[in-house]
Amino acid sequence: MESLSASPVSDFYRGRSVLITGATGFMGKVLVEKLLRSCPEVSTLYLLMRPRRGVDARHRLDDLLNTTIFDELRRSRPDALRKVVAIPGDMTMVDLGISTTDRELLVEEVSVVFHSAATVKFDEAIKLSIEMNMLGTKRMLKLARQMKKLEAFVHVSTAYCNCDRSEVEEKVYPAPTDPEKLAQCVDWMDAEMADHMTPKILGNRPNTYTFTKALAETLVMNEAGKLPLAIVRPSIVTAARREPIPGWVDNMNGPTGLLVGAGKGVLRTLYCHRDMVADLIPVDVCINLLVAVAWKTATVRSRALSAAAREPDGDANKCANEVVVYNCVSGAQNPIKWSVLENVGRTHLRRNPYNNVLWYPGGSFKSSSMYNEVCAFALHVVPSYIMDGVARASGKKPQMVRIQQRLTKAVKCLQFFTTSEWRFADGNVQHLLAELTPVDRKVFDFGIADLDWDAYLNTYVLGTRKFILKEDPSTFPEARAHLRKMFFVHRLSQFVTVTLMWRLVLSRSQIARRVWSLLLGILARAVSLVSGVTRAALPSLGPIAAPVVG
User: Fold this and answer.
1) Which of 57, 389, 426, 473 is most buried, by CB atoms within 10 Å?
2) Number of domains the chain contains
3) Nearest-angstrom CA–CA distance, 308 and 303
4) pLDDT of 284-314, one tens digit each?
5) Is the pTM of this model over 0.85?
């Protein structure tokens, strides 16, 4: 491994303490692992963790560090894991629910903040979404203003917080509404009233997630000139490209759920515009950018402070604390269309099948909403009821209807993104990439232009098989044998379906019967003609054919 001594990014974290929110999430886990592995001299990682389901923060930290992605660190550098400290807290509570002692510790020690905690459910209740995504960010900014050593505050947003625009630049746009007034308005509503008012509150936004993330950006922007701030906007975050483990993923959100559903044979149709760009971004690309952005933000601030010190009338805050936005996307440099995801993904799902698939992986995207609904009823709803009926008859627990209902709900949440397209600017990302030294470009690479989507999707499918479905590679022979059986079942069912449908048409339509008789007559004459030509030609071939027959 190349030495990190020539790495300005890694060197920046030497002796500094970092506060991370959302560390138990998909991106948060990869961020913690990356800082421990690639910034070995970092002092302490403080993780704001909420006690959950009777499990306190300390035990949740133990569970986090026992995740597969920390196996290598646990083997090679176990001492590194002792740098991780859990801070009990809750984004939805006043002052984040942090004790006085822990608050004083963070105020005195923290130099870098990564704020990624959020509820990412698209259909989350508006009250909780505001409390978590918007007011949680406000509480974090309040804490940051008290930190004596703060050099960088990196807010993790989403590229789709401005999904009402077809072109999204790297800047904070005006909020859809005043965050403070909205919080006050929703605060006095009960949950039922808030849910009833949600469509009017959202306006032209598709869900509470993108809406509240846009409001959170406004709150961050309001702190410009007071704090060293940056915003990183990932698009659709997917499995790891290279690190911590190629293909690693820990949730069923977005394309991961689509791959698993399609690979298991239960997802046969999806409302999607094939020619539009699917802006996927591997999680390790996002994390490398986050780590580099904190370094860049602190470096700019340091230079500005030095310049202000040389000029008595200089305003360090004015020149150092502009909020820089980074769109972490793939579409600007290396776009992939949904049609490629459909076709290449299907190929790899068949090449690397899951265990015990319920049906042969197939189906297709539909550009017509109505046609997709018809196909969903025929290919999803009807088979699920049939399979549950068979399960009941055999004394087993029916579950396919429930699975299909959950799948349908998840797919509908994604339809806005599979039927729309955006052009994201990424100039700030490219400029930062160009500033990295060769060592940092290798260790903290967030370039996307050289990504081979075919190879990546193969890695993605293998990752979902291993880390989501927990299927061992040793089961591939059995899985492939089962897939071959399901292929014949699939073809047989197609033949039977077509035959029955045609028989039904013939029984109901006189025109169809006439057409069928005409086709049979033409076929019979064609066979008779070929037979006559063959018999006429055989005598002239006798001397040649005889030895063969004999």
Assistant:
1) 426
2) 2
3) 9
4) 999 999 999 999 999 987 666 666 556 655 5
5) yes
